[in-house]
Amino acid sequence: MSEYKTIKEREEEITDEFSLFDSWEEKYEYIIDLGKRLEPLEEKYKVEENIIKGCQSTVWLTSHYKNGKVFYKADSDAIIVKGLISMLIKVLSGHKPDEILNAKLDFIRDIGMMTHLAQTRSNGLLSMVKQIKHYALAYKSADAA
Amino acid sequence: MEKTTTISPTFDVNTIRESFPVLEREVNNKLLVYLDNAATSQKPQVVIDALDYYYSNYNANIHRGIHTLAEEATAAYEATRNAVKDFIHAASPEEIIFTRGTTEGINLVAYTWGRKNINAGDEIIISTMEHHSNIVPWQILCEEKKAVLKVIPISDEGELLMDEYKKLLSLKTKLVSIVHVSNALGTINPVKEVIDLAHQNGAYVLVDGAQSTVHLDIDVQDMDCDFFAFSGHKVYGPTGAGVLYGKKKILEEMPVFMGGGEMIKEVSFEKTTYANLPYKYEAGTPNIADTIALKVALDFITETGKQLIRNHENNLLKYATEQMQSIPGLRIIGNAKNKVSVISFIIKNIHPQDVGVLLDNQGIAVRTGHHCTQPLMNRFQIPGTVRASFAMYNTKEEVDRLISGIQKSIKMLS
Is there a contact between B181 and B187 (Cβ–Cβ < 8 Å)? Predict the structure, then answer.
């Protein structure tokens, strides 16, 4: 079990990592590598209801709630998207719903991947963030009920 | 006698490029290579200037005002109608209806002619390679009227199976709505034969000219289509200015589309009579500026020389196809004998979107995805393709950048 780090600390880790890269090639090779190393999602989760809408590629996202914390798993048929999801999961998975809902995710801008967040882009990073937060909100509401 | 000199037109791509200011742009610190022309073409400076000049000098509402500005704007607007008539060889300007684009043109026919003439059990034929814009309006109509939508299958090369088409035709066929050139495959369909066969069965034919008008010589009378729709923004003109052509006799008999100003003759609360063609179908204040600038775009094409443009684009297509065929794992989707300068491709074990993202980082704009042709993608059992589409201003050097960009992307993704 890796030591507990806040969302902010995990964002900073990624930002530090990216600060070593000089070129877009290095950034994307790193993201592609993250995508390749993302733990494969079990086939049983690759169902219609787990597909995030608004993505040009297919993205599956699933979550579970344990001891007041949300854990995410995801997969995609496109490798760059998978790398981006991998970073989101690394930053957000294993935190409390409120922490996830309040996360600003500035690291996406800091590492120069803001274009992927633009609403006009059909690769769906924005949709992914929304869906991740949507799950967190659902668990929070269920707790309050 | 006035002395005239005839200069035989020549095609110099570098001179042409100077007319398109956006081509000087850098994207991700590299000179832009714009290969998404099938989605929309870039605009020459003269088109941009025409928009600016209209708003700076004679912006007015058309057809109604008696003042100078209104007369100038009306004259310019109607000049575009005449230019379009010439460009597609329609019989008269009354057959030219201005729309927002191809999609609106097809919908106009579906909502007016379709609602009046399609009944339960009637059949409408489309093809596997239609854009969603030429599928969905007919699905809506068929559902409402309990009519039947039939689909012409295609070969693995991406060509219509004409024998299958013949089998689909019958006296039940009321309309064949067919794409002239496939946006996803580049296939040029034998529309003249399609139309002839449909007419033999008493059916009308709508030709979706969204992709063909910029590349091919369009002669609606020779083609003998009943309707022809295209978009201004794919022929180097502004967005939001499109055209629906219809044979005069058919347009006269069709019910009106939208009600409002401009399309009326007289209005009373008891009874409204409608204006003559083409105004009957042009309710409300139209897109005056963009329509006026469309003429400038068409003139630009004509002055450059459509045949010369086509030769240039065909050379690019041939060169790019050869280069791509040498890339291991790359498969071209759409290998019809007759194609325009569009190449769709997939790469083994790589998602099209990944290629698109990495090409964009190299300053190369292509389209990735299903290209609004999901049934076609299903036919080939692929999620989508990467599509490079070439226009008059693209160069052999840009093809080289595309090829090395693809090779680099493959290396990074493998």
Answer: yes
